[in-house]
Every structure is written in structure tokens, then in C-alpha cells.
Amino acid sequence: MEPHVGANSQRRGPSEYHLMAIVEYDGTEYLGFQIQRRGRTVQGEIERALAVVTQQQVRIVGAGRTDAGVHAKGQVIHFTVSWSHALADLQRALNAVLPADVAIIELREAPPGFHARYSARSREYVYTIYNGAVRSPLAARYAYHFAKPLDARAMDQACACLVGTHDFLPFGWPPRGENTVRTVYRARCQREGDFVYVELEADAFLRAMVRRIVGNLLLVGTGELAVEGFARLLSLKHRRTPAVAVPAHGLCLVRVNY
Amino acid sequence: MEPHVGANSQRRGPSEYHLMAIVEYDGTEYLGFQIQRRGRTVQGEIERALAVVTQQQVRIVGAGRTDAGVHAKGQVIHFTVSWSHALADLQRALNAVLPADVAIIELREAPPGFHARYSARSREYVYTIYNGAVRSPLAARYAYHFAKPLDARAMDQACACLVGTHDFLPFGWPPRGENTVRTVYRARCQREGDFVYVELEADAFLRAMVRRIVGNLLLVGTGELAVEGFARLLSLKHRRTPAVAVPAHGLCLVRVNY
Q1: Mind telling me how many Å the CA of A231 is from chain B's nearest CA?
Q2: Do B135 and A71 touch (CB under 8 A)?
Q3: B88 with B160, same domain?
Q4: Cα–Cα distance for residue pair A251/A210, rounded to 1 Å
Q5: B149 and B208 assigned to the same domain
Q6: Fewer CB near the last or first residue (10 Å), C or N of chain A?
Q7: pTM of the model
Q8: CB-CB neighbors (< 8 A) of B22 in chain A
């Protein structure tokens, strides 16, 4: 029998760890988080780094399947791996092997039964709009340029009607036959100089939901759609809202709460 | 004789304009501002855009020759061009033709005799350090990652001794036989969360001067060099300071004052 090994780094043999990690990435060069048959994905890069560092085929599970081009400051993943050194060493080794646009920000043991996706109570996203008259090369990578002046206060009022439990089918895309009822805990819009931020927190999001909500909020911001008109979109029984989704590069998964 | 044409947009024929523009760029993909025989430069891209839009070979002059990889939020250029429409149309056309990482933020008529470089009273640079323990993919493009904790207050104290008129030869690179006396108007260092910003304003800067100053300031920040030791570097008669230049991608030319 092996002697009992705890979380200390004195142990000799490898231990099986159930781990959770906070992952930050610049999504510009990725087809999204989730692994696909072809093309560069964040999951693919992390699993490749785990294979290099641990010599094991490790499958990771992420809290949110961010789309192509979407960034993350606080994506959460879990995985199980054998490791015989300190966790800080595993984190350092992974970050040394990962490409520059992905990093493991935190790595720690997960509670028993922890599941990055199913254990999550809520996800927080921020969509960043650069609302200057002229496009900004230094803001272009992480903010969507929208030149027409936006009334962020009206957009914030429209946000208020999203809070609560609703059928978000009108903002869901594409149809999937899944349950489209979600609970939004927080929805706000605020301006800081030339930047307008839309912040949304919900138990979970439908695919492209944040970007389709923001697309319609922009119509409120320009005065093309009244706050009441925006509120009525929630009762639509189809997905033909006035606006399409805004581009992915303004979106960032900032935090997952457990 | 042509009738008198002013700045109004009613005129028919082209007028010769002496213009100044504020230029913003992401320097990541450039060999620097100044045009070179080969390779991508900001000046080259702007002159190419001017040629496309105005059908003229226009030579531009910039206030500062930023090095390869250095960014700018407020580079200033001047040039002379014939144009028969509104200046706003010229700006829009240039921004439509320029690549996504360069933009003309402002365009207006320059005072007679205005020279972007020689008329400048001072230049302001900011060097951004990301001082978190783990590298940040979302900060990586515009901030230099330095993992050891930095004492920004000590760095700020060291900055104070840069203010005034000094021979900056120890921080100049490479040797050029030019006058190395410069006047620093403002030098400060401050922390905001995991970011540390070094802000410098001077009448002009020697090549790589900001990056070599910051390199040595980092030694102050880690405690390897005392504030007094940093102050003594200014009286060196050679260029062998303890630290080398920090990387270009943390540096941004934020403003030129006239």
C-alpha cells in the first residue's frame, strides 16, 4: 500500500488530482473554446499542453463554449490528471508550453464532484463598444467600433427589462430544440469616455445570446428602437429580432461563479 | 485669376493644403514609423493611402520616429496636398484605405510653417508594465510582463531625478555623435492594480531612451538598485547602465504638444 499522500509536495509517487483552472485567452486566432475536428481551439491548445507536460491524454471541460473570436478573462475548466510535483509547477509548465494567447491564471484542487459547466451558478460577460467617431487601432482588437453616438442611458434602461427569468428564444441562435428559458441576474450598460460596456450575468446563455441582445441594444442607443419596443422583443415567439448579432471580438467571458 | 478659396467646402478646383494629422497605430506589425527601403512602416502605409486617395506622391513628416513594435495614440504628422473636397472627406477616405492597425484620428489645416517634428514643444510617452505573477494574454499586446513584484513608489522616486535638463547619454542608444542633452518635464511611475505605468514627457527623446530608462527603473522596483544608485546613472560618461532596454511593445507615444 502507498502511504497516504495529501496536497503537500513531499510525496514521491504521482497522485490523481481533480483540478480546476481559471483560463484567460485572446480569442482572435481561435475557432472558439470547444475542440473541433479541424482548426485551432482553446480546448485543443490546453489539452495539447497537458499532453506535453504530463504525458497523459487529458480531456478538459470548460464552463462556457465561447464562439470563434470571443475572448475570456475568466473561463473555468476542470480536469483530472496524475501529477507528482507541486501544482504551482504544473501551472508554470503549462504556461511555458501554451501559446502566448492562452494562459492558466489560477490552478487549484477542485472540490469533490466539481464540474466546470454543471456546477456553475452564473456566467458574466462584458461586451465592449468603442463609440468614437473614428475607428481606434489600439481598441480594435477587444472592442467593436460603432461610430454613431449611443445613448448609453437608454440602453441601460432597456437592459433592466432583461433581468429575471424569461424565455430568451428570440435572442437564441441557432434553433436547437433546447430549453430556452434562462435567468438573467444582472444587466447594465454604462459609458466610460468613448467606450460603452454592456455587462450581463445569467445562470447560462444561449448561443450568440449576448451578441444578439447587444445588437438590438444598439438600436435603442441610436433611437431607432424605443425601450418599450426592446422590452417587447422578449415576448416574440420567433428569432427575427430587428438586429443581427454584433461581432465576436467585442465579447469577453469575464467570470464564472460557483 | 482664380477666385479666392477659403476653408469652405463650396470650392470647385483643388486647393493646396498644409495639413496636420493625429495618427493612432498598433505598432506590432511594423518595423517602426519611418519609411525604410524594405518592410512595413507606418509612414509607408500612410503615404500609400495618400497616393491612392489623392493620386499624388505625398511625403509626410512625423513628430517622432517610433521604433519597431512601438505603438502610438497621438503621433502627429504634417504634409502638403492638393484636395478639392472637404477635409472630413479626405480623412474618411484615408481611414477607409489604411490598414486596420493605423488610423487618422484628427485631420486639420496646420498653421503656416507648422512642422510636425521641429515645431513640437514636447512628446509624452507611456510605458506599460503588467506586474501580475502569471502572464496575461489579454494584456500581452500592449504591456510588458514583469512577474517579480515591483515597488512602484521607489520607481516613482527614481523618476523624480530625471526631471530637468541633463545629458542623457547614458540612456541613449546607439551612439550617433548627436547632442544628447534633453529636458524632461515630467517623469512619474504609478501602479493601478497589476499594471505599472511609467510616464515621461520631454522636449525630445534619444533613440531607445524611454525603454532604457524603464529597464533601469525595474531594477529600482525590485530593490536591486537604490534610488540614489539610479540617480548616479545620469552622471555616467558611457552607455553601460546596469539594465538593457525593455521590449518595444509596452511603449506608446501618447501625445505631442505644440
Answers
A1: 34
A2: no
A3: no
A4: 8
A5: yes
A6: N
A7: 0.90
A8: none
- pLDDT of chain A, 258 residues: tens digit per residue: 344 444 444 445 678 999 999 999 999 999 999 999 889 999 999 999 999 999 999 999 999 999 999 999 999 999 999 999 999 999 999 999 999 999 999 999 999 999 999 999 999 999 999 999 999 999 999 999 999 999 999 999 999 999 999 999 999 876 667 899 999 999 999 999 999 999 999 999 999 999 999 999 999 999 999 999 999 999 888 888 998 999 999 999 999 999
Using the structure block, give the residue that is written with the C-alpha cell 502569471.
Answer: B134
| DSSP letter (8 states) at residue B235 | T
Q: Is A34 exposed, middle or buried (0-12, 13-18, 19+ CB in 10 A)?
A: middle
Query: What total of structural domains would you count in chain A?
Result: 2
B2 within some domain? no
Let me know whether A161 and A98 are in one domain: no
How far is the alpha carbon of A7 from chain B, nearest alpha carbon, in Å?
Answer: 22
Whether residues A83 and A206 share a domain: the answer is no
Residue B5 lies inside a defined structural domain of this protein: no
Domain region containing A152: 122-257
Task: In whole angstroms, give the CA distance from residue B58 to residue B46.
Answer: 9
Where does a domain end: B51, B78, B109? B109
In whole angstroms, what is the distance from residue A128 CA to residue B127 CA?
24
Chain B residue with Cα closest to A73:
B138
- Axis crossing angle, helix A209-222 with helix A152-160, rounded to the nearest 10: 130
- From the list B73, B134, B252, the residue facing A105 with the nearest CB is B134
- Please report whether residue B217 resides in a domain: yes
A interface toward B at CB cutoff 8 Å?
A: 24-26, 71, 73, 91, 95, 100-106, 134-138, 140-142, 252
Q: What is the ipTM of this complex?
A: 0.89
CB pairs under 8 A between A and B: 61
Closest residue of B to A132, CA-based? B105
Q: Are residues A99 and A133 in the same domain?
A: no
Residues of A in contact with B140 (CB under 8 A): 26, 100-101
Residues B62 and B29 in one domain: yes
A228 shares a domain with A166:
yes
Residues A177 and A241 both lie in one domain: yes
Q: Is B156 a catalytic residue?
A: no
Among all residues of chain A, which has the CA nearest to that of B133?
A: A105
Q: Which residues of B133-150 are buried (b: 16+ CB within 10 A; e: fewer)?
A: ebbbbbbbbbbbbbeeeb
Nearest CA of chain B to the CA of A178: how many Å? 33
- For residue A1, being part of any structural domain is answered with no
How far, in Å, are B28, B72, B230 from residue B69 at the CA level? 5, 10, 27
